[in-house]
Amino acid sequence: MPTKKALELAEQKQLDLVLIAPQANPPVCKIMDYGKYKFEIAKREKEARKNQRTITIKEVRLSAAIEEHDMSVKAKNAEKFLKAGDKVKVSIRFRGREMAHREIGYEVMEKFNSMLSRDFVIERQPRIEGRSMIMVLAPKE
């Protein structure tokens, strides 16, 4: 159909002539209410964003020479984060000669895991990265 005729038809129906596929030969157009179309797309996108859950990573820092009570407080905080649906990054920063005794860091991580209830999955096992030991915990689905 010629463009002029399509435009007249759209004006008669008080709608818009929207170009769908400009690369096609001949170009493809559609008669529609463009404002309503844009509104529906925006509404769908808003609904999709509302249903999304952004995962945040909370960090709990320990040290190689951490006391029992301090560790239990940090374990409670980590538990709270996991119940809220966040991932928890547990890190130990080694200072000075502590680097020579990495096994202490592994023991601290193991003790920390034993303080938590089993409502989590170890996403990344304890691993040394530079002067830090890092482990990532995620909530169970």
Q: What shape does the CA trace take?
A: rod-shaped
What composes the largest sheet? Answer: 4 strands, mixed
Classify the secondary structure makeup into a structural class.
Answer: alpha+beta
CATH architecture assignment of the largest domain: 2-Layer Sandwich
The succession of helices and strands, N to C, reads HEEHEHEHEE
For this structure, the CATH topology of the largest domain is Translation Initiation Factor IF3
Mean pLDDT: 89
Beta fraction of the residues? 25-35%
Distance between the termini: 55 Å
Helical content stands at 40-55%
Number of strands: 6
CATH class of the largest domain: Alpha Beta
Q: What is the CATH homology-level superfamily of the largest domain?
A: Translation initiation factor 3 (IF-3), C-terminal domain
**Arrangement of strands in the largest sheet:** 3-4-6-5
For this structure, the quaternary state is single chain
Detail the poorly predicted runs.
Answer: none
Number of discrete domains: 2
Q: Any chance you could write out the topology, listing elements then pairs?
A:
Elements: H1 3-12, E1 16-21, E2 28-32, H2 34-51, E3 57-62, H3 68-83, E4 87-93, H4 102-115, E5 120-129, E6 132-139
Parallel strand pairs: 3-4
Antiparallel strand pairs: 1-2, 4-6, 5-6
Describe what you observe in this structure.
- Strand 3, helix 3 (68-83) and strand 4 (87-93) form a beta-alpha-beta unit.
- The protein has four helices and six strands, in the order αββαβαβαββ.
- It folds into two domains: 3-51, Translation initiation factor 3 (IF-3), N-terminal domain (Ubiquitin-like (UB roll)); 57-139, Translation Initiation Factor IF3, CATH 3.30.110.10.
- 41% of the residues lie in helices and 30% in strands.
- The longest helix is centred in the N-terminal third of the chain and has 18 residues, at 34-51.
- The protein has helices at 3-12, 34-51, 68-83, 102-115, and strands at residues 16-21, 28-32, 57-62, 87-93, 120-129, 132-139.
- The strands form two sheets. A four-stranded mixed sheet has the order 3-4-6-5, with helices on one face. The protein has a two-stranded antiparallel sheet with strand order 1-2.
- It has 141 residues and is an alpha+beta fold.
